[in-house]
Amino acid sequence: MSTPGSAVDFEFGAMGFSTKNAYFRFGPHVKEARARRQPIVALETVVVAFGLPRPANLQVAHEMEETIRAEGVVPATIGLLDGQIVVGLTPAELERFAGDEGVRKVSRRDLPIALARRQIGATTVATTVWAAARAGIRVVATGGIGGVHRGAPFDVSNDLPTLATEPVLVVCAGPKAILDLRATREWLETHGIPILGWGMETMPAFYSASSGLPVDARVDSAEEAAAIARVHWTLGGKGILVTVPPPADFALPRERLETILEEAMAEAERAGVQGWALTPFLLARVAERTGGESVALNRALLIENARIAARIARALEA
């Protein structure tokens, strides 16, 4: 294992990158996958550290990886450990993100701080996409992406500008329902990020099957999504979204969800909760007020997104 101060030299054929950087380390299964030219799907760690309660967080992380492997694709869960960005955490390393109280949420602005201080850092969608692009990984699977916050159009998640600058396809259940979905949709359009709907003409809203907002194109197969992504990248495009509705057996009605969110937002304002703490606060309130239904839903959509991401990654390598 290399450490800061000793260079890592790793060839990435799929995207033409060659990295020589002391701050990257690659799991043995990722190195082997590259050597064999196997497709890879990157996964974030914020959902493990902050997105789900224990012990579901670690269980879901393992289930997502197993779902990807079942499709003949290699999972690469990304996180910061011991002063390095690890692309492809081992099971023992992943456990540290599920149970350590000292885990830091790391967006792109936090990378130099967390690395210099050798902190355990859980990667957001933005950081995962950024790292995946440098590791030659074209596909990332997650739950929901960040976006434009309600009542604060100046408050934009770094997920969006990162998608606008990195050539990576992200499979998700749409922007998180706590956001201003219309403003988020407009931001994506303005910055040239295509939104594809998996079997849908409308964009899902994380917990709900439809936001009522249109996607740019419906796709009904991994091959179709891969074909559009290839053309997008050939033309110089960057990020692309494949939005997948949550499994029908788990999805929450939009009206019920909106009522819960309005109450939770008001409570957050009274309590002075803001910044990065707002999202976990709201998600926790939604979980409480749905009697745990949202946790089961989150688990189901994460696994489904991992499955579809793996199929698209495989189609891209075909």
Automatic annotation (TrEMBL):
InterPro entries xref list: Indigdn_synthA-like, PsuG
GO terms, molecular function: hydrolase activity, acting on glycosyl bonds; metal ion binding; pseudouridylate synthase activity
Any one GO cellular component localisation term in the record: cytoplasm
Active site residues of this protein: E44, K176
EC number: 4.2.1.70
A Pfam family reported for this protein in Swiss-Prot or TrEMBL: Indigoidine_A
Superkingdom in the source lineage: Bacteria
Record-listed substrate binding positions: K105, V125, S157, N158, D159
Metal-binding as UniProt keyword: yes
Swiss-Prot/TrEMBL cofactor(s): Mn(2+)
Residues spanning the membrane: none
Keyword Metal-binding recorded: yes
Free-text comment on the cofactor: Binds 1 Mn(2+) ion per subunit.
Subunit comment: Homotrimer.
Function of the protein: Catalyzes the reversible cleavage of pseudouridine 5'-phosphate (PsiMP) to ribose 5-phosphate and uracil. Functions biologically in the cleavage direction, as part of a pseudouridine degradation pathway.
Family according to the record: Belongs to the pseudouridine-5'-phosphate glycosidase family.
Protein name as catalogued: Pseudouridine-5'-phosphate glycosidase
Organism: Thermoflexus hugenholtzii JAD2
Lineage: Bacteria, Bacillati, Chloroflexota, Thermoflexia, Thermoflexales
